[in-house]
Amino acid sequence: MKATIERAKLLRCLSHVQSVVERRNTIPILSNVLIEAGGDGRVRIMATDLDLQVVESLDAASVESGGAITVSAHLLFEIARKLPDGSQVSLETADNRMTVKAGRSRFSLPTLPRDDFPTIVEGDLPTSFKLPARLLAELIDRTRFAISTEETRYYLNGIFLHVSDEDANAGGPVLKAAATDGHRLARFTLARPEGAEGMPDVIVPRKAVGELRKLLEEALDGMVGIDLSASKIRFTLGGEGGVVLTSKLIDGTFPDYSRVIPTGNDKLLKLDPKSFYEGVDRVATIATEKTRAVKMGLEPDKVTLSVTSPDNGTAAEEVPADYASDSFEIGFNANYLKDILGQISGDTVELHLADPGAPTLIRENEKSPALYVLMPMRV
Question: Is the model's pTM score more than 0.85?
Answer without folding.
Answer: yes
